[in-house]
Design brief:
It contains two helices and ten strands, in the order H-E-E-E-H-E-E-E-E-E-E-E. The chain is elongated and about 65 Å long.
Length: 149
């Protein structure tokens, strides 16, 4: 007797593949040039993803946060779903996955009257940073946070 393949089972259950990257986005800083990035495909129900975002599955990626600069919103080890279709900075104060140089991070962003971008942490002990818009690259908007209990 032949058993169905993973692809057949995923199709029957209406599951879609979302990549999980092993790069931990710093809730402080993670240096992307020092970390090999591995990708693991994971299966999720299409309806569940549709409740979180309108993005097609190929524009979504799961990653983990590392550090404490976004506490209490994010804690070390939380998993985040990043919508890579949202890279235009048009919403202030939501969570964005971004890189600044070789540092990958999750932060809130706010445009200053000068046109510079404030990079904000939720942890009040972490000072804000301010950069020119061309000094950061937005990877996508964080649309979901998952946490182990």
């Amino acid at each position: 007797m032949l058993l169905p393949t993973d692809e057949v089972i995923a199709d029957q259950l209406d599951l879609v593949v979302i990549d999980e990257i092993d790069l931990a986005f710093g809730l402080g800083e993670t240096y992307t040039d020092h970390v090999p990035i591995e990708v693991t495909p994971r299966h999720f129900p299409r309806a569940w993803l549709a409740a979180l975002t309108d993005a097609v599955p190929s524009m979504l990626v799961f990653a983990r946060g590392r550090g404490d600069s976004m506490m209490p919103t994010l804690i070390d080890g939380d998993i985040v779903l990043i919508d890579k279709s949202q890279t235009n900075f048009h919403q202030q104060d939501v969570l964005w996955a971004l890189t600044m140089g070789d540092a990958a991070m999750i932060k809130r962003l706010r445009v200053r009257p000068s046109g510079r971008i404030a990079i904000l942490s939720d942890n009040p002990t972490v000072p804000q940073d301010e950069v020119a818009s061309n000094e950061i690259r937005i990877i996508g908007r964080v649309v979901f946070i998952g946490r182990r209990m």
